[in-house]
Amino acid sequence: MSTYGLVVQKKEMTRMWVNDKFASVTLLTIPTQEIVRYKTEEKDGYVAAVVGVGKKETGKVKGAKIAYKQCAEFPVDANFIQQYTAGTALTSAILEGVEKVTLIGEGKGKGFQ
């Protein structure tokens, strides 16, 4: 079983008919993101992909590093590294053939506001 990761953003909450019942659902969007680099066993002690989300404007300086609004790390295996090189944009195509998806959410820490 392979484990990959994508960064998603919550779009809205709504309700849908699922198996003849009215269920609450959360609609998600996949923002523009790309693989920045890979962490390796030899250098970092584990294997992971570093994903950058939403490029920031850095100006027109030649040779300037690309800045991202958010970066995330996901553990990956050798299959993923062979299939997606650094600099590759990740889209919803990565989810083709996937039967089960596990989501982990992060709150902003605003309590009951």
Strand order of the biggest β-sheet: 5-4-3-6
Radius of gyration: 17 Å
- What would you call the shape? globular
The average pLDDT score comes to 84
Helix content: under 10%
Strand content: 35-45%
**Quaternary status:** single chain
Tally of discrete structural domains: 1
- The helix/strand series, from N terminus to C terminus, equals EEEHEEHE
Uncertain regions: pLDDT < 50 for 5+ in a row? none
Sheet with the most strands, sense and barrel status:
4 strands, antiparallel
State the total count of DSSP E strands.
Answer: 6
Number of helices: 2
* Structural class by SSE content: mainly beta
End-to-end Cα distance, whole Å, is 39 Å
Compose a concise summary of this entry.
The protein has about 110 residues and is mostly beta strands. Helix content is about 10%, strand content about 40%. The chain has helices at about 40-45, 80-85; strands spanning about 10-20, 20-30, 35-40, 50-55, 70-75, 90.
